Each structure stands twice: as structure tokens, then as C-alpha cells.
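HUMAN: Please help interpret these C-alpha cells:
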Amino acid sequence: MSTGSRDGGRRGAQRGMVLVIVLWIVTLLAVMAGGFADSMRVETRLATGVVERAQARALAEAGVAYALAWQLDPETGRRRWPPSGDPHDWAFGGGRLRIQVTNASGLVNLNSASAELLKALFAAAGVDPRDQDRLAEVILDWREPDRRRPGGVNRAVGRPGSKQAGFESVEELQRVLGIPKDVYERIAGAVTVFSNHVGVSPELAPAWLLRALGLDERTVVDYVAARARAAAEGSPPPPLPRNSGQSFFSGGRASVYHVTVAAETESGTTVIVHAVADAQGRLSGQDLRLLAWREGR
């Protein structure tokens, strides 16, 4: 074989090797570019999610302020929006909000409710009748100093024992021995620690709580309609019908409001906020006092 032929073959092999290297580099760059693009897409989605959630949270905060502004108007506000837990829809800032305002007197006070009232609440939450007495007892044991009653529970290994003092927040109920998480979630919206009343004010109680406390459906429908008319007219609330579980109810109105806002952005991102505020200071020109704030269901 001539020298020229050998040189030509060598150059051809070198060109083939260069082509392989070039193809390998191009493939590597393509893989790197694809990975970078995927990374950018993930980061963009994350950033968009953060922005959307921030927008939903801002909408929810606006909903709380909007609801409380209505409650601070003793004339028009309370007539058009009585704080009895009825949902109100509001479109604002490109989003949709569902707002519920309940005066604390329309809820069950964890610090003063009787055992019978607590048992009625647990019954409405679907608790087995055999467990209703026990759960009411552990709440009484938690809040009352040195309480000793048959079946009462004071301490338990590995779990916080009785506090022997009043509840400071609704969330504290989760620390009570024997209260299952699902039961807590079902009753959390029906209880408060910011009312001085032993019973529940029927004028301000949500319709579902009236049912839970023993009123039949027809009575609830008629009473809720009657109290709405009375509020719109600025008249005193109607009395409950006789034989309507009167032992669970008491009158009065607190200065504290529980506000729940479910805010949804245009893209569908939703945030739920629960706030509790005391309006008492407004009478003397002071700022509204925020007592509790929780995000989530």
C-alpha cells in the first residue's frame, strides 16, 4: 500500500473521530439545556405558586377587615350583616371570598359550658354515645383546679395532663387527653374561649349549631328567618319557641367576633383564614384588638 493511501486512511479516521466527539458534545449540551429548561419550569411553577398563595392570603386578610368593618357599624352593619355565622360572598381584587362572622356569644364556651352542653356538642359531631360522657369529663378535668369526679381523668403518661385552668385558645383543645383529631376538627368551629356566657345565644348562633343543640329542622328554619327579619328591622330578636332545649341557651352579645374567610384567586388558589378580634376598645377610640389568627381548615 502506498504512503498516500495510508495517509488518506489516517485522515479519514481522524475526521470520523472528530465527528463522534462533536456529536457527543452536541448531545451533552442538549441534555444540559433540557435539564436547565426543566429546572427553570419547576422554579417558575414554584414562584408562581408562592405569588398566587400570597395573593390569596392578601385577599383573605382583606376579607377579615371588610367583615369587621361591617360589624363596627352598629346601625347599618348589624342590620345587613348580623354576626350569626351565615356565609356572605364577596368579589374583590379579582378573587372570590366567602366570609362568615359569628359573635362569640353564639358559640359554645369551652371554659363555662356544662357537661350536658358539651355532650350535646359531641353528639352533633357524631361521637359514639358511649364516648360522649368521657369526652365531656376530660374537658371539665382539664379546666377545673383539683377536680375529682367518678371517671374523671387528671394525668396520663406521655400526654399533657389536666391544666387545671381555663382554655386560652380553641387550639389548646388538641392537647386534651382523649380528644381525637377528627372530633376536634368537627367541633372547632362551634367553640370559643372569648365569651363570658354559660350558654349559647340563639340570636347569634349559626343555624347548624342550633340543630346540634336539639332544635328540629322546622324550628331552626323558622327561627333563623324570624331573627333575620328582626335584625333588618332593628327589632329585638324573637324568643325561641317553648320546649327548644332552653337549658343550653342564654342571652347577650360579646364584643368578640370570630371571622372565617375562604379566599380564592382567579387561578383557583385558595387560602382559608380564621381570625378572632375584640371590638370593645373601639368604643373608647382604641384600635381593634386581634386575639387569634390561624390559617388552614
Q: What stands out?
A: Residues 3-71 form the longest helix (69 residues). The chain has a mean pLDDT of 82.
